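Lab notebook, design round three. We kept the backbone fixed and only want residue identities now. Task for the bench partner: fill in a sequence for the structure below.
Input structure tokens:
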């Protein structure tokens, strides 16, 4: 449990007013990068502590959700606790929050008030629809960001109307908004720290536009041609063969054989070299026009083999492919383990637990070293953090 001076954000001080996912995800990234993050929780703790599985009342997810953060508890309905928050923000570089738009103003802690206390404070705000606009006061969760941002329309299978388009399985709009907020907050801090005269900035991030930003060329295509992209299923309309194919053991194999050379190797590997010589399949455009025949031939082959065996054969032929990994596959895969993507971490509240590594690497810092401590109990650092704030202490804090 030590400070990480070799990480790029060492010395940056962040206060998190986050609950559930978006803001805590943003600050987890910043904390993994070395920032001091003080997570302010209500007296009962972040509601996410009640989600999912637990060990003796300690939420398993929070081990990752709250890692590398200092936890304090405040009741923002109380004037004295709001004063304590302001004291924390006086020593901070940034605040990250994800209340409903306008909540800070309603409790007397809007940006104008906070900038009076700390004129150089960067304020990162995450909400469903943004701090302005006709929808700003509507409630929203991650599923709404997926739905309105255009993603959920695309997750259906083509022509399927019996079942609703599924969510992707994780809170993708919260995570995206958190990533964008982290990037924007660091950018604003860079500007403020680089200019002694600079004033703090307000960063406005929302769930809907975070998802909408991923829609590639769909908006200009609609504007120019009136095209509305429809669900593609597991295939890619502009490249072939690229799809996910059934295997003999009930698992699925994703295969991307869409360049001319890879296509030839793929056809040889599945025993159909004559298809590689067929003029209809000589280039990607022709393969896209005849993709149904190609996919049928590939699926005929994959159905005869377990997914792992088919994967081994295609990898030997240098054809990009992968089984659809579930978490058991991820946790035991030798590459995941060798790269440190999956780490065994000792959590004082849970015992030994598996953690995902931070999704970035820096020379001189091992992935394991970026997990300085696991998610603490709510309010675990009250005494240390509030004492430092009362003294006006600016040095980074570590447990």
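Proposed sequence:
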């Amino acid at each position: 449990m030590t400070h990480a001076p070799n990480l790029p954000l060492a010395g940056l001080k962040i206060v998190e007013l986050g609950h559930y996912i978006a803001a805590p995800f943003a600050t987890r990234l910043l904390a993994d990068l070395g920032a001091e993050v003080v997570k302010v929780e209500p007296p009962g703790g972040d509601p996410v502590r009640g989600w999912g599985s637990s060990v003796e009342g300690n939420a398993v997810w929070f081990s990752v959700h709250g890692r590398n953060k200092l936890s304090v508890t405040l009741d923002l309905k109380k004037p004295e606790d709001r004063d304590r928050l302001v004291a924390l923000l006086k020593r901070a570089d940034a605040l990250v929050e994800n209340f409903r738009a306008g909540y800070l103003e309603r409790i007397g802690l809007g940006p104008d008030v906070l900038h009076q206390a700390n004129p150089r404070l960067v304020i990162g705000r995450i909400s469903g629809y943004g701090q302005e606009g006709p929808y700003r006061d509507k409630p929203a969760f991650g599923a709404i960001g997926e739905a309105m941002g255009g993603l959920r329309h695309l997750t259906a299978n083509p022509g399927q109307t019996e079942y609703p388009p599924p969510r992707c399985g994780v809170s993708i709009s919260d995570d995206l908004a958190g990533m964008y907020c982290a990037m924007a907050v660091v950018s604003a801090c860079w500007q403020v720290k680089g200019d002694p005269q600079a004033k703090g900035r307000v960063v406005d991030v929302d769930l809907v536009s975070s998802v909408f930003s991923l829609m590639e060329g769909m908006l200009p295509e609609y504007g120019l041609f009136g095209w509305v992209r429809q669900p593609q299923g597991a295939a890619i309309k502009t490249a072939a063969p690229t799809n996910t194919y059934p295997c003999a053991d009930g698992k699925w194999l994703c295969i991307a054989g869409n360049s001319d050379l890879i296509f030839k190797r793929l056809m040889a590997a599945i025993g159909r070299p004559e298809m590689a010589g067929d003029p209809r399949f000589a280039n990607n455009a022709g393969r896209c026009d005849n993709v149904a025949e190609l996919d049928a031939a590939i699926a005929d082959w994959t159905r005869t083999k377990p997914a792992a065996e088919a994967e081994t054969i295609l990898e030997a032929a240098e054809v990009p492919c992968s089984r659809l990994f579930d978490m058991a596959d991820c946790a035991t895969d030798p590459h995941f383990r060798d790269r440190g993507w999956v780490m065994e971490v000792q959590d004082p509240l849970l015992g030994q637990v598996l953690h995902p590594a931070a999704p970035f690497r820096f020379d001189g810092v091992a992935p394991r070293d970026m997990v300085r401590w696991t998610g603490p109990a709510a309010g675990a650092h009250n005494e240390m953090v509030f004492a430092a704030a009362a003294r006006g202490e600016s040095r980074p804090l570590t447990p």
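Keep this in mind before ordering anything: The chain has a mean pLDDT of 95.
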